[in-house]
Amino acid sequence: MAMTAVARETVFSLRRQIAKIEGTLPERLQAPAAATLDAGAGSDLTIVRRGLAAALPDAFLPIGIERLDAALSGGLPKAALTEIHGLETRDAGAVAGFALSLVSLILNRAQGLPILWIGTSEIFHEAGFPYARGLHGCFGIEPGQLLFSEAPRLVDALWVAEEAARMTALAAVVLEIRGNPQRLDLTATRRLHARAQATGRPVFLLRQAAEPEPTAAPVRLIAASAPAVPRATVAGPLAGSIGYPAFTISIGKSRTALPGQFTLEWNPDERRFEERRGEERHGGGSEWAENPVPVVSLSGDRKDPAAASGEILAFPAAGSSAAISPTARDQPPPGQRAAHLGPRRAS
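Below the sequence we write its predicted structure tokens.
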């Protein structure tokens, strides 16, 4: 009987620990005594969080969207590894744009510290580098605040990221990787997460054209582009205009939140996010319905060339001796072949 009681108590203890880890048993955890003393007597810095972790309010980077921050229990953790995924190659711009928006929020609180952006030659050749003038105009990032490190191999990029994550002279570290390489396994992400926890600096792992897989990051966000709505004016939406850049952000993984999806707009003037809801996602339904298909026709050298355009004011009217058919104008002279249609060089 005694052994049965001990075994039962052991099982109950294990179940309680599992419930804490899974976040199904919220508890009120006391903040460190040193933090209470720094904040002054009478301050209540205790945070109610699911699981075993207790954190202070400044341990999170608030995105600025109340629903999203509440779902993430305060925002993105500062001293941690955070994943931002793009499921397809065409989402690379949205992933980088969302990461740059987060970098802009960090630099507002970083007191002039720079950001290090690390990537392999493959990802920079595929997705390109951020444009310096666009960084300043859209995100308020000076060219000297964003440093780039291009590594020839993934193992070199991981080594640079680990060493950079140790440094307190950086506000954050961004590591951009394409696909699901075998070397970027659970052990490698644990090392990055441990470095971020030790220095108290965020490390963002951008996964372009990648499938979700187990990592040590406590939060994984999936980013994609969203259609822009017309720019808002005092008289209402401006027809034919393009509003702020928009992102569709999904919570793919979080230790404190359930899966959810949000449509965010980045305001480059005020440098903050805004949320779109309901009919605002499609501009009230009218603008999105006007262009249900791509408006760019096929090029002239395809199997089904586009139809000839109508009369153009800048050219002679149709029927005059100087008029040239647009279809004929696009064709190369006999015996010649367009350079871009020639065979690639083997070397």
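The mean pLDDT is 77.
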